[in-house]
Amino acid sequence: MHSPCLTKGHGTGSVDVLQAQCSLRDSQADITAAGTPTLLRITFLGTSSSRPTVRRNVSALAVQREGTLFLFDCGEGTQRQMMRFGVGFGVSEIFITHLHADHYLGLPGLLRTMSLQGREEELVVWGGAGSEAALRDAIDIGGDRLQFPVVVRGLPSAEAVRYAGYAIHAFPVEHTAASIGLALVEDVRLGRFDVEAARRLGVPEGPMFGRLHRGEDVRLDDGTVVGAANVVGSARPGRTLVYSGDTRPCGTTIAAARGCDLLIHEATFTEEEAVRSRDTRHSTAKEAAEVAREAGVRKLLLTHFSARYSEQPHRILREAETVFPAVAAEDGMTIEVPFLGDDPSGGDS
Ligand SMILES: [Zn+2]
Ligand SMILES: [Zn+2]
Questions:
Q1: What's the 282 CA to ligand 2 centre distance in angstroms?
Q2: Domains and CATH numbers, the chain
Q3: Ligand 2 center–CA 301 separation, angstroms
Q4: pTM of the model
Q5: Is 102 among the catalytic positions?
Q6: Tens of pLDDT, residues 66-89
């Protein structure tokens, strides 16, 4: 269904060709499923930094886009969190932001469970460029052979993996280990198709709907020409979801998150520990909020809290909100990312 291919940056020739193909498929999907926008849902599986607490597990984020499930990071114990929060094990691809234990030690256990459950489908594990050997070692811990193929791939920062209708981009961030942030960027969508208007103009349901939606004028059996502009609105932006991984506040995150629908930024400390935050190359709540304000994001979610804030996320939140409105993530929190203008409430649950 999704056949990923690596592409460089935004807007290269190969991307454009693929985008054209994807748009075609999407336009057909839009019409058959009119009124049911494509699902983009995230579930926080772990919101603690470095070590788990009673209330929070270490980092992992489930990202579901329509029928495809990704994990962004996979800290120890992620598989139990997936069971607890009903995420399911039908993961296609796992992206690891960096090789700190709290972000990838969950791989061997999760993959072993998938194997015991009889998985046969290939799984792709992406890490930053140069992390492939360490990821392979982690996956092979335990000795017994997995019953399904696992492909490990390096994803250089500033490159992207393409899927039908969207891409996942890596961008470099600033941490003590080589580390990437991740951005899921949907393609621009075709304009809204006005089914009622098309019917009123006498267009029969079927292939002509698709041609009109893609911008073609069509000629009806009686010779009347119906212009696409009469039934299709202007192109609409897709959604963008950005995950900072572990990082100091940095310009690359701001650039990736500019105007995005949802920024998930780490906020390991508060300003009380600003020195420690700098020394360990993390962000304070205030710094994360400043990144969000600078980037003009629609919504900010904070995560990756030091254990001392595990039971007191309001301390993180209070500090962030002196700069920008924010939500402190909790394990099990699920957010559906709405299309701009579709749901002004934000669609949280
Ligand atoms: Zn971490
Ligand atoms: Zn780290």
A1: 8
A2: 5-190+235-331 (3.60.15.10), 195-230 (no CATH)
A3: 18
A4: 0.84
A5: yes
A6: 999 999 999 999 999 999 999 999
